Structures are given as structure tokens and as C-alpha cells.
Amino acid sequence: YTEAWDADKKSIHIMPDTPTILLAKANAANVSHKLYVQAWEEAKKKGYDMRADAIPIQSAKASRDIASDYKYKQTHEKEKGHYIGCRTAQEDPKLSWAARAMALQNDRIYRKAYHDSKAQVHIPVDALSVQAAKECQTLVSDVDYRQYLHQWTCLPDQNDVIHARKAYDLQSDNVYKSDLEWLRGIGWVTDGSVDVVKAKKAQELLNERLYRTRPDEVKFTSITDSPDVVQAKINALQLSDVR
Questions:
Q1: CA angle, 241 as apex, 235 and 243 as ends, to 5°?
Q2: Per the domain annotation, does 243 fall within a domain?
Q3: DSSP 28
Q4: pTM for this structure?
Q5: CA–CA separation, 231 vs 191, rounded Å?
Q6: Domain for residue 102, yes or no?
Q7: Engineered SS bond to 92: which of 86, 206, 209, 226, CB 3.0-4.6 Å?
Q8: Where are the annotated coiled coils located (predicted)?
Q9: Buried/exposed code over 148-172 (b: 16+ C-beta within 10 A; e: otherwise)
Q10: Which helix (H) or strand (E) holds 226?
Q11: Do the domain assignments include residue 167?
Q12: CA torsion 39→41→47→51, rounded to 10°?
């Protein structure tokens, strides 16, 4: 049954410019992997020159930075809003510890240059500030201030020695108070002193007995015929039990 068909297939001749053949060739070219990568393979064989400031390179770097920043903050974005129990950053132990560590680190870095250079200071010996400090030290030094003078040898009958001795005697406290030595042990009556007289006057002013006179001590003579005295006598006679 198929023998005649197989014989006919071998004897069929189709023109190469027919539409069907052309369409089949076009479809084969579209799906061919060899033709798809042929331009790329030829470009690779020729080589390429890509500069660092080319637009594709800049675009790739920007895309990489965006992706890196996103990956870096991905964990933070996931944990954002899940902190519980700390109203402020100072109450969070981890944040407080991180802030303290950062402050210590900054202080250490801030003082590093000073600690490295504090032992490397070289001051010349003839500097103006050093000379001034030496002069001040000499002025305030107790050793240089107290310099004992040498012993002078003077005759006791020299005029300047006699004059100095008299001046010392006049300035001496013992000589100044020597005229009061004869007063020691002498008694003194204070009756006529100013303080005693003042105290007596004050006592007289404050004495109520001298200030107010009692009525029974005042001498007076009553009038016998006055109306009140006569009335008092009449009342006394009326009230008298003897009468």
C-alpha cells in the first residue's frame, strides 16, 4: 500500500521559489540558535572597548547600589515596628550600650592625637616663658628670700649704736608700759567714779518708793462743817447701837 507512495515521494520536484518553501526557510532562520547568536559570536571575535563612564556601566553601578541598599535595610524594614517595651531610645539597653560605646570610641579617637604627642614636646631652655618662670620662682623662693646677714662688730660707745639703743628702748613694749608698773597692787575706792554715780542716779529714777508718795503719809486737815462730813455724822448717830 505504501510502496507506491514512497516511490512518488522520491519523484516529486518542488520549485525553490514557491511561497511555501520561502516561508519554511524564514521560519527555520527565526528558530535557528546558530543564527540567533551569530552576531554576538562575531562581536566577541572582534573584541570591545567599554569605558568606565559609559551609560551602561553607570546604570549597572546605580542598580547595584540600589540593590545593595535594599538588601542592607531589608532586615531593619522587617523588624521595624516590632520593638516592644521601650518608649524611648534611652530605655532600650542595646541602644544605650551602643550609644555609650560610640561615645567612648569618639572620646578615645578625639584624645588619640593628644596622647601621641603629649610626650613629644620640646621647649628650648632660653624661651621667654621659661625665663619668666625661672624669675618668678626666684622671687617666690623662700631659700633666696631668707638670706641671713653676717655679724657686724660695733663698739658699744659709738654714737649710732647709742642712738639705735635709745630708739629700740622707745619702741619697746616693756619700756612703753614701764610707767604703769607702779600702779600694780594699789587699792582704789570706786565711790566717786562716773559709773557708780550713774548707777545711783538710775536707781533713784527707777525707785517706786521715791516716785510715788503713799496717801497716809500726806498731811492734810479736813473741814468739819462740810455737808458730806455733817451727813456722815448724822448717819453714824442713827446707825449707832449705843444710841
A1: 75
A2: no
A3: H
A4: 0.18
A5: 59
A6: no
A7: 86
A8: none
A9: eeeeeeeeeeeeeeeeeeeeeeeee
A10: none
A11: yes
A12: 70
Number of domains in the chain: 1
Three cell numbers written together for 147: 638670706
Domain range for 166 = 155-183
DSSP secondary structure of 175-241: HHTGGGGGGTT-----TTSHHHHHHHHHHHHH-HHHHS--GGGS-----TTSHHHHHHHHHHHHH-S
Question: Would you state the cell numbers that stand for residue 135, as one nine-digit string?
Answer: 624669675
Phi, psi of 231 (to 5 degrees): -65, -40
Q: How far apart are the first and last CA of the chain?
A: 203
Within a domain: residue 110?
Answer: no
